[in-house]
Amino acid sequence: GTIDTTPVYIGAGQFAAWKHTQLILDVVEGRGGMFSLDNGTGRRFLVRSRAYDEGEIAMLHRADRLRAMQAAHGRDADGFWLAEARRLDWSVFPTKADESSFDKRDFGIRWFADGELNVSVNCLDRHLMTRGDQQAIVFEGDEPGEGRSLTYRALHREVCRFANVLKANGIAKGDRVALYMPMVPEAAIAMLACARIGAVHSVVFGGFSPESLADRIIDCGATLVVTADEGTRGGKRIPLKDNVDCALERASGVRSVIVMRRTGGPVSMREGRDIWWEKACAAAPDDCAPETMNAEDPLFILYTSGSTGKPKGVLHTTGGYLLWSTLTYDLLFGPEHGRDVSDDLFWCTADIGWITGHSYVVYGPLSNGARTVMFDGVPNYPDPGRLWETSARLGVTIFYTAPTAIRALMREGDRWVTPHDLSSIRLLGTVGEPINPEAWDWYHERIGRGECPIVDTWWQTETGGALIAPVPGATATKPGSATFPLPGVSPELVDGEGHALAGAAEGNLVLTRSWPGQMRTVFGDHERFFQTYFSTFPGTYFTGDGARRDADGYFWITGRVDDVINVSGHRMGTAEVESALDMHELVSEAAVVGMPHDVKGQGIYAFVMLNAGEEGSEALRGELRTLVRKEIGPIATPDVIQFVPGLPKTRSGKIMRRILRKLAEGQADQIGDISTLADPTVVQQLREGMNEPA
Ligand code: PRX
């Protein structure tokens, strides 16, 4: 037909080159044939297109949309972000988008700073008219089939009630509330209730010890804790309330503890401090006016491990975080063309104690009006078929988990998968660590019937939501690669000196521009925020990860390049484990590094030097493991403890971790130059010691 090759305006005003137009026309056309389009300027275009099937049409739509977004961002970044901000309901719409600077002189991260909105309104109220009776949360307990679901209306009511309970207990805008909860709807209710009244929540993973809980409560200055009597995981009970009692012996600023009944197990309630959730809510009114929040008001603090010191309180704010979780949920997991978001049942298996649980169990899905699963169990209880049995029973359509879970279940064999009808699943996702090709293939073949796309999402607690990930249907994937940056995300690879690497290269992964979901500060320590992320490669945000870009421009995350290890997709600072080990009276010094682990991705390898004259023993290994569990939690338990006569140190006394890493990786022959060591013979001793039982 007649083809005009000049750029044209289409539909909602998206500027597009001819190739782009062709795609849109093809899509509109669908079944093929002649088609004509008025581009708004009065010129008509006539096109003949071939036939497409439904799947292809959906793909073209997505690819097209992604390209349009990227083009729009390239043309006018602020205009793009303000247009995207329309995804949210604002009481005052912002006039400005990005006012961030990575530069030391005017350092700061700010987005939509003159906008006002409330997160709970976006996750609840705005859906009531259209989705009030639709499921919001589908809860699945530890025992298969133990569950219930909450509609948006019911969730709204419970959130308002609990918000009133918080207020009645003296919590006001800006106050910090610690949550130490199982994966039950009440956890999401508590988060959203905080958001409703402008309180700042800090969720602490229920697997952390009372010591870790106390550290976090003290650091963020929480005055109220929400918990449950006990948690249940894999048939075992976790004494959450007892742990809180224990933590509060040290964290003395807490005035109230709200306890929900999960198991009915015995707990001691302290008069004047502890109250039952159920009782308090029963007496509370079920309407609560939302607090108007500035876009830059804090939404939550979440602690995460770094290379040095204690875990940092990563602070996220209201507008940017919500936009990023909302936008990325839609791009990655949104409905197929012509479908509604409620046609899907989305299951992200992460615990709300981690950022993945914040962004993709609670905020992202609910803001989009989706149906989100909350699972309070573990993948291997009552048997290794649990995730598949539950997916089939609930009719899950999108399943998002960590590679470590896939590897663990893959090892149990296909017989745990085959009995279950997984035909409802249409899309798979992974997060938290690189996925190895073997696990990718198994996931794709056995769970995804060889048909479902896999979205490998790279991101961090600090980033709020996914930054590098394929948009299903629009991005051709390569197993093990997180593929390309999402629209508006600017990754770069730099060498050790910070020089940008072009083309196919491997280096340190940095981001050269801010994005709305970026963390705003380390709570209480803005200087540490700058030092940790912006001082290594000035002018950029340094992720702590290494990455490779292949000849096609695909990103492959190679893992952390700092002293952070990734155990089963959980971040662990080697310094934290070391300081726990150092607490033992017989330990002189400990050095911890990551080691390859078939299931966990990385395991924890501890080199422990005892005081002069002390001998290592199996009993002492047990004591050290117990100590770490007590100080941090079971996830930090060392896999290997090697007692060593000395540690490889430079003459200035710095431990050469490079050497320890090589040893732990079983690459003792690749240690390289050790001439800078104060005592090079240490290396030989370490090598010999490795044959001992661990
Ligand atoms: O090393 C990267 C790894 O997990 C780190 C972030 O951990 P955390 O803040 O706990 O957040 C985990 C969930 C977002 C990153 O620095 N990581 C995360 N996703 C991937 C990944 N590594 C490779 N591929 C991924 N998809």
From TrEMBL:
Residues 69-123 form the Acetyl-coenzyme A synthetase N-terminal domain. Acetylated. Deacetylation by the SIR2-homolog deacetylase activates the enzyme. It comes from the Bacteria. The modification N6-acetyllysine is found at K654. HAMAP family: Ac_CoA_synth (MF_01123). Catalyzes the conversion of acetate into acetyl-CoA (AcCoA), an essential intermediate at the junction of anabolic and catabolic pathways. AcsA undergoes a two-step reaction. In the first half reaction, AcsA combines acetate with ATP to form acetyl-adenylate (AcAMP) intermediate. In the second half reaction, it can then transfer the acetyl group from AcAMP to the sulfhydryl group of CoA, forming the product AcCoA. This is Acetyl-coenzyme A synthetase. It comes from Sphingomonas trueperi.
